[in-house]
Amino acid sequence: MDLSTEHASADATPDNAIPAGTGPAGTGNRGLKWIYLALAVAGAILPWLANLAFIRDYGGSFDLGLFVQLANANPAASSLSRDLAIGATAVVIWMVQESRRLQMRGLTWVLLSCVTLAFAFGAPLFLYLRERRLEELARS
Description:
Layout: H1 3-11, H2 32-57, H3 64-71, H4 75-102, H5 107-116, H6 119-139
Helix pairs in contact: 2-6, 4-6, 5-6
């Protein structure tokens, strides 16, 4: 067999194929999904502790305009805010594409949690659900 045709056929995989080594059948780590779940819990609690402190310190309600103003109060805060906004946008686009590719359930809840709880909760929750889906696919 010609090596060039063997190489070409090995590379010819459909766009929706699951990459090798991305689950328990490959080189995946079974504990990884639990790490993601623990990060999701921390990502829900820690930002909301800060949000509750903001509510307590600035008037007893969540004033979104003031929150954004304070998030851009100095160059360091602006840098972090812009970094999160751009990074989170890219990750959300990837989450939508990846959930379609893997035919995952729960994306609506993940996206809602990114907006209502914290991106720090929604992104690890997505990764947990993704690992769980990869395990399902590896079993079938």
